[in-house]
Amino acid sequence: MNTKNNIDQLFAPLRETATDAPMHLWPEIEAAIAPEPKKKKRFLWFGLFGFLLLAGSSLILYAQKAQPSSHLTTQPIEKIPHGDNATAIVARQPQKTKQQAAPIASQSSDHGDETIKSKKLVTTSRKSTFEPTKVLPKQMQKTTLPIKPAAFAPKNQEQKQLAAPSKATSHQSGRHTPITHPLGLEIALLPQIKIDFPKDYRNLTQPEEKCAGSRVIKVPKSIFIDAYVSPVFSNTFFAARTPEASSYAKLRDSTEGDEVGILLGARIGYIHESGINVRAGIAYQQIKNKFQYTVEQDEKMIIQIFRDDNGNIIGRDTTYEFGRRRLNLTNKYSTVDLPISLGYISMKNKVQIGLHVGTSLNLSFRQSGTYLDQESLVTKFSDKKIFEKSIGASFFGSVELQYLLVDQWGVFIEPQIRFYPKSLTSKNHPIKQNVTNFNMLTGIKYIF
Amino acid sequence: MDDRQLIKGCLENQKEHQKELFRRFSGKMLSVCRRYARHEMEAEDMLQDAFVKMFRNLSSFKFEGSFEGWLRRITINTAIKHCQKKAFSNELLGYEKLPENSHLNTSGAQMNEDFLLKLVSNLPEGYRLVFNLYAIEGYSHAEIAELLGITASTSRSQLVKARRMLQLRLAKIDNYHNQSKKKDLIPK
Q: Smaller CB count within 10 Å for chain B: N or C?
């Protein structure tokens, strides 16, 4: 009993023992408890950026589609004789089936000569969608509207002014051939004159507007060369290979933040008539991230050199200062890759839009920078070999938007997302380091 | 700044408060961990896990008892889990490491904390856990049984063996010390 008490009493003081606070453990604990919404937010920004790009490209395409080609705007209204002295304005037959066209024809015939009640002519900048119809099909002929000669005669001063083409409008429509009405009213600028038809006739023109300029042009078979540059928005993920390394992964994640890098490249490609294309090239990429860390107890060596009046060294004094050191260093990961892609291109007027998927084969992978090792010591990449010699293949997807400037030259913009399935770090290292990049390729294209 | 203010700051994710809390208690808790760990690295691992656990569950501290007592319980539980995960295999293999420098600083007055800690650290895993919990932390056998997932009688028998082992080692060291003294007395 006595022995028992003695032993217990001998060891009891151990309960109150305390050592110095192991502050070198704090960075890892701080990293482990730090909230981590940062990357999610960054992904949201990337998503938003991508969405805006797609929306922007769609808008450009839509604008291109809505803009009619020049030959459509210069077409005069077909003038056909109707009766002895009458002129008929013919609305071009819309691309409709007979079933669709039939009621229109009947409507027009129902209206007869009295159909056009509004004789007001309105000058407008809106371009007409009328087209000449040299051979009028039967359905078409039924839709001709006989107009009384007096119908277009301006009755008062206001109407005369409206009917008369202004200088500006005549300049715009310089290629128009004036058509002189037997009664003297010039309707030369009819593409700029909106006739206030009854609703049924106005509807006739609407399908035309939709058709104007919206045809997809067959992509010509060609070979091209691209040269491009891009900012690289990288996203680095640190993941533990074992559960024990999870806090170390968090520590690395908290001390290394992504920065904008750069990508340069050139490629050659071939477009088939079907729109399918292949591209291959070479690219240099520099992924950057920022290493930020505070060394709590660091020393700074200060060497003072004393010189005499002649500049000769007469003494040295070395002192040490102890304190915190804030490290703010840039890490660089450089790669040389061979990107190969397969895609599909669609062409509308001068604009091409393409979708591409591909792979990049890594030829060279180099790193320079600093990181925290497992003992929380600031270590240079060159001191320990923690990276793979090659990062293998990466995969990418992109949307290309190209505009042809002149015959053989074009510019393009291509948002691209690239994923590296292989970890940058070697298998012996306790954490994986994976990268996903978002690039915005901007470049010039020469088509042979 | 008292503990209460510090804890409130930590709950608001203020880094300076978190750091200060660590600075204030980590020394004591590292001593706790050292008694359960086989070496310094393992003690630091235990401490780190314990503090991470504490910060993540700080909102469950209701200011009803002492914060140090609450943190100590977390630390002990974490240390026990570490031991159960890694170390029992050594005990099953009969692995037992004697103090490397047990002949040093052993004179009665020099039985300092470090030396005692070494003696405890070199007990076999099961003995060490029970001895630590009973003799140093003041847990009952019932509590130890619940914590370690053993019966109370096993806890008792482990404690008896642990005491006996410590006693034997102390005796050995004492003998060695006495012999050294005698050698010094023999005229050369």
A: C
Q: Which domains are delineated in chain A? A: 73-211 (no CATH), 216-294+329-447 (2.40.160.20)
Task: Please give the ipTM for the structure prediction.
Answer: 0.78
Amino acid identity, residue B187? P
**Multiple choice CATH, B1-86, 1.10.1740.10, 3.40.50.2300, 1.10.287.1080, 2.60.40.10:** 1.10.1740.10
* Least CB–CB distance from A18: residue in B31, B44, B47: B31
CA distances (Å), origin A113, targets A110, A149, B26, B140: 9, 11, 101, 113
Question: Which residue, among B17, B26, B49, B165, would best test binding to A if mutated, counting the most A CBs under 10 Å from its CB?
Answer: B26
Could you count the other beta carbons within 10 Å of the beta carbon of residue B182? 8
CATH architecture type of domain B97-188 = Orthogonal Bundle (1.10)
Is residue A201 exposed (0-12), middle (13-18) or buried (19+ Cβ within 10 Å)? buried
| Residues 6 or more apart in contact with residue A417 via CB below 8 angstroms | A50, A396, A397, A398, A436, A437, A438, A439
**Per-domain residue ranges for chain B?**
1-86, 97-188
Can you give the pTM of this predicted structure?
0.41
pLDDT tens sequence across A331-340? 999 999 999 9
Q: Do A8 and B135 touch (CB under 8 A)?
A: yes
Closest-approach residue (CA) in chain B for A27: B19
Of the candidates A404, A414, A398, which has an alpha carbon nearest to the alpha carbon of residue A348?
A404
Q: Which chain B residues touch A32 with a CB distance below 8 Å? A: 48, 52
Intervals of chain A under pLDDT 70? 1-5, 36-46, 56-57, 59-219, 296-299, 321
Tell me what pLDDT residue A244 has: 79
d(CA A108, CA A82): 15
Q: Of all helices (H) and strands (E), which one includes residue A232?
A: strand A222-240
Q: What single-letter amino acid sits at A366?
A: R
CA of B92, closest CA in chain A: separation in Å?
A: 24
- Residue among B15, B23, B34 whose CB faces A21 most closely: B23
Cβ of A22 within 8 Å of Cβ of B47? The answer is yes
Model confidence over A352-400: pLDDT tens digits? 888 899 999 888 888 888 888 877 778 888 888 888 888 888 899 999 8
* One fold for B1-86 and B97-188: no
Taking the alpha carbons at both ends of chain B, their separation in whole angstroms is 63
Q: What is the SS3 assignment for A330-361?
A: EEEEEEEEEEEEEEEEEEECCEEEEEEEEEEE
Q: What is the CA radius of gyration of chain B?
A: 20
